[in-house]
């Protein structure tokens, strides 16, 4: 479903940690902001990495998106405007308890989708940073998303995680009654490494070619260090390969109709 004013929701997910999910969410949000839109960042990872990069540290779980799930607190009450201009729904460590508390009923896993469809809920495109588990949080992201973006770092364990995502999405198709749009993004790309070429070739074999991004996110020191400085790559090193690659990713998703 498309949103008014061309607003779209992108969920960034892989069932393998350390593949660049938060880095991708952060820099896609920044690329959207550079085009004059105010993006919505949603942190659904109990590790809170995206929230920390934005310099937001909720003192209690009630000040985070946790309270939206546990007592239906309005998203607008939780949202914070960050120094970069993005609006953030921050995470908290207590999110890890939600699977035990809420289960995975239809009303639970569609809760975020329903809220984001409320009139005026989205100021601009939304990007969701997911945890590396197929749980109630990531299911909320998947059900809410117009596009699932799956970072795959250039190693075989990361590719295995992406294959698990593909199987999970295929299993959910009877529920969606359609194929959920997805794109697989190769990260930590280094053309000099043999493993990079092998993973890239394997992706073409096990995934649909049209669902693999043309853009590659190259290995880059500036890109790796920017989150620790609580800035995106465009503010940290605007002329770097990382900035060029994430700008290219934005343009690719825009050209494919996933962003407006």
How would you describe this protein?
This protein is α/β, with parallel strands linked by helices and 260 residues long. The protein has one domain: Rossmann fold. It is built from 13 helices and eight strands. It has an eight-stranded mixed β-sheet, with helices on both faces. Helix 1 (21-34) crosses helix 13. The longest helix is centred in the middle third of the chain and has 21 residues, at 156-176. The radius of gyration is 17 Å and the shape is globular. The protein starts with 8 loop residues before the first strand and ends in a 5-residue tail after the last helix.
Tally of individual domains: 1
CATH topology: Rossmann fold
Number of helices: 13
Question: Which CATH class applies here?
Answer: Alpha Beta
Give the name of the CATH superfamily. Answer: P-loop containing nucleotide triphosphate hydrolases
**Which series of helices and strands comes N to C?**
EHEHHHEEHHHEHEHEHEHHH
- Could you give the order of strands across the largest sheet? 3-4-2-5-1-6-7-8
Question: Helices and strands: which structural class?
Answer: alpha/beta
User: Given the C-alpha coordinates, what overall shape results?
Assistant: globular
């Amino acid at each position: 479903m498309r949103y008014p004013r061309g607003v779209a929701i992108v969920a960034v997910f892989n069932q393998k940690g350390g593949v660049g999910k938060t880095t991708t969410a952060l820099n896609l949000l920044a690329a959207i902001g550079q085009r004059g839109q105010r993006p919505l960042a949603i942190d659904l990872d109990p590790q809170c990495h995206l929230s920390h990069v934005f310099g937001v540290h909720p003192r209690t779980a009630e000040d985070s998106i946790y309270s939206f799930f546990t007592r239906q607190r309005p998203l607008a009450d939780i949202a914070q405007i960050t120094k970069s201009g993005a609006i953030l729904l921050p995470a908290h460590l207590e999110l890890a308890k939600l699977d035990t508390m809420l289960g995975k009923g239809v009303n639970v896993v569609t809760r975020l989708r329903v809220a984001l469809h409320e009139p005026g809920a989205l100021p601009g495109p939304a990007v969701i940073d997911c945890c590396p588990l197929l749980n109630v949080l990531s299911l909320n992201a998947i059900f809410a998303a117009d596009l699932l973006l799956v970072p795959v770092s250039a190693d075989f364990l990361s590719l295995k995680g992406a294959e698990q995502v593909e199987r999970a999405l295929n299993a959910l198709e009877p529920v969606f009654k359609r194929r959920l749009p997805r794109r697989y993004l190769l990260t930590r790309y280094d053309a000099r490494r043999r493993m990079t070429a092998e993973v890239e070739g394997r992706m073409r074999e096990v995934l649909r070619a049209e669902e693999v991004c043309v853009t590659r996110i190259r290995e880059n020191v500036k890109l790796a260090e920017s989150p620790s400085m609580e800035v995106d790559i465009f503010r940290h090193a605007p002329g770097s390969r990382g900035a060029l690659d994430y700008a290219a990713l934005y343009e690719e998703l825009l050209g494919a109709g996933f962003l407006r």
